[in-house]
Amino acid sequence: MAADEPFSEELERWLRSDDEKTLGSMSTVFAERSFAAMVLLLMILPAAPLPTGGVTHVFEVITVLLGLQMVIGRRTIWLPERFARRSLGATTTDKAIPFIVKLIRRVERFSRPRGTRLFDNGVFYRLIGVVVIVFAVAAALAPPFTGLDTLPALGAVVVALSIILKDVLVFGVGVALGAGGIALALTVGAALYTFVKSLL
């Protein structure tokens, strides 16, 4: 990879290559950015307006596992062997590519390194892990077929991208998206509860 190559181009080239597209192989390809790259690719599926057939719950569980490792300060990924061998699947590597790359390129247009020291700070790194866990759990608990998992998942994607770009402003946008999604889900849930209760 060229030093100045945008991450979107690097990611698109890898996704379109003939290389094995397993979670384990990502650790080698993206090196120190593997946590962020893996969270981004795992959570892009629930964030994208695509039929997923329930596979997103597996990805959300793995994302929580990654977040926990960030919280304890790990810099290299550990995954159970069966997760490490798991393929990203055609839906992620083929159908989600345009959505992934378009989103990243939009962010790259206005992003620049801001608050880079924060991303090297152990406490902030652990905080990011907590945020990733919260958003992944919120996406997993969203009622099916409601689309309420989209914003928390997108928040996790943008937060992961902020690590790669080392831009604290992008991190703030990701937190706002995810928190807004959680607030929306709670509001809709409360409204449904009140409606059902009124019928009883």
How would you characterize the overall build of this protein?
The chain has 200 residues and is mainly alpha-helical. It has one domain. The chain contains eleven helices and no strands. It is globular. The chain starts with 6 loop residues before the first helix and ends with a helix.
What integer is the average pLDDT?
Answer: 84
Order of helices and strands: HHHHHHHHHHH
Biggest beta sheet summary? none
- Residues in helix, %: over 70%
Rg from C-alpha positions? 17 Å
Through-space gap between termini: 62 Å
How many beta-strand segments? Answer: 0
Instruction: Please give the domain count.
Output: 1
Count of helical regions: 11
Assess the beta-strand content as a share of residues.
Answer: under 5%
Q: Low-confidence segments, ≥5 residues, pLDDT <50?
A: none
Shape: globular
Return the structural class: mainly alpha
Keywords:
200 residues, mainly alpha
SSE diagram, text form:
Layout: H1 7-16, H2 23-30, H3 34-47, H4 56-71, H5 81-84, H6 90-95, H7 97-110, H8 116-119, H9 122-141, H10 150-165, H11 168-199
Helix pairs in contact: 1-7, 2-3, 3-4, 3-10, 4-9, 9-10, 9-11, 10-11
